[in-house]
Amino acid sequence: MKSVIYNRYGNEDTLEIAELPMPRPQNKELVxxxxxxxxxxxxxxxxxxxxxxxxxxxxxxxxGADFAGIVTTxxxxxxxxxxxxxxxxxxxSLNKGTASEYITIAExxxxxxxxxVSFEEAxxxxxxxxxxxxxxxxxCQIKPGDKVAVFGASGGVGxxxxxxxxxxxxxxxxxxxxxxxxxxxxxxxxxxxxxxKNDIFASEKKYDVFFQVFGKNNAYYSKAKKILQPDGIFxxxxxxxxxxxxxxxxxxxxxxTLVKSKSEDxxxxxxxxxxxxxxxxxxxxxxxxxxxxxxxxxxNGSVNGKLVVSIQ
Length: 312
Description:
The chain is of the alpha/beta class. It is built from 9 helices and 16 strands. Strands 3, 5, 6, 7, 8, 15 and 16 form a 7-stranded mixed beta sheet that branches. Strand 1 (about 1-5) and strand 2 form a beta hairpin. The protein is globular, with a radius of gyration of 19 Å. The mean pLDDT is about 95.
């Protein structure tokens, strides 16, 4: 089978398509014929070596985490899926990859694909929607009428956050580059602030939640707390050790999300997609031979929604 691998850490040029043996499932695993994957920043970070302390030392390594496809084999302990089922999911392990014609995955990391979306669209529904859901619903417990600012609102997690925050009845202010205003409002944002022309941190408006999606190495808590309600929540995706004290004692509250792959959450996301409550957005669709180009586009940023790679 064809699979995307890399034999050293580095940029997208380290990626290559190789022939690997067909995978065999354990008792609690399935084999999936992958139809499409979507890219996440963790894919490029892992490839660069940013997570090497959390990965095994063996090369070649595979890439990819999100996927959608068709079940071809089931382990003997599988209960909820059968051969031929259309599924999607998120592989949390940094030591496995989904950019492959076939993969093995645990039953707890997948759900049945929404009926009304394509495999390419379904591949978008894993990591970013899990992250947004677990941040908004679980960490922040957003309720109707809450005022939510999403900083970095035009990317994958930001798009999901807008859609899900509106589902839970919040008033959403999207913060992104000025060229993304129309896109963010199409996702449901009530208000828009361009971070390249305006300063949201100078706003007189007070928010119940400030969700920082954009910003790889620094949390903007010191600025954001000025526009948060005293009992408000700042939440980000940056679990750096230097923020531990803030997470314990800061007011307004400081929280972060480490996304977890849960079948029940994926099933809920699938239900919302079938109900047209959420809509996966694809910025560009690549074919497998163009995987390097897709990784490069993700690294360069300025993507509204998600980048997808069709496998077969």
